């Protein structure tokens, strides 16, 4: 039995939740991964995984073993990367997570450009508005927009964007253009579902809080954006989201001398002493490209 390969098969199976997913990550077949895990269990004399119709999960013994094998494989990867430093090209599988809208509008194109530059790299882009812990899900790099930054991860700042009030020309033609923040109280204000009532703006007179109420909330940024484009109301959006629509006059600025709280972006990844070359190259690339997203809006 190739013990290291069997340990890798087991560890990936736990992290990815299935033997087939582990096989894809390891570049092999599902029967091969199943055989490796079975040989590992036989060699240890304990059952490591529970298999059922819903998938698989580690047994109590398997969970304890996994905690050790995960760290062991990380140390092994670092040792290999250290030995090959300076002679290797970036290659292998990268798993990247990002919020849905940023992924659809910008990161997808960046990922394809990155693959063109690095033909020996494979990339999985996982789009999810819920935060995914890179260590738990075996994600190499996670893009985080706003929110608290986990203390157990490295957080590299890659962007800051103001938020601006926008509406469609049709909405403004029907309902009029607000002249002051207080005028927003008589308009339809659209917001993300998890947000609180009230709107904080920074303008010529400093900070002002407007107690707006929202009749419509939605937990998807694309749906919120489409609602604004469709004339449903006014919304506060980051400039990376609306710059093109403002330039094409699909949207117009509302109260252009006011902005909302900025949106911060960070790349999150594991705090390893020696990151694999493919991860370092990706982080550098995304840092450069994300920083180029529009920060201003006319």
Automatic annotation (TrEMBL):
Keywords: DNA-binding, Transcription, Transcription regulation
Coiled-coil residue windows: none
Stretches assigned to the HTH lysR-type domain: 1-59
Cross-referenced CDD domains: PBP2_CrgA_like
Alphabetical list of InterPro entries matching this protein: LysR-type_TF_proteobact-type, LysR_HTH_N, LysR_subst-bd, WH-like_DNA-bd_sf, WH_DNA-bd_sf
Gene Ontology MF terms: DNA binding; DNA-binding transcription factor activity
Domain of life: Bacteria
Protein name, UniProt field: LysR family transcriptional regulator
Organism: Pandoraea aquatica
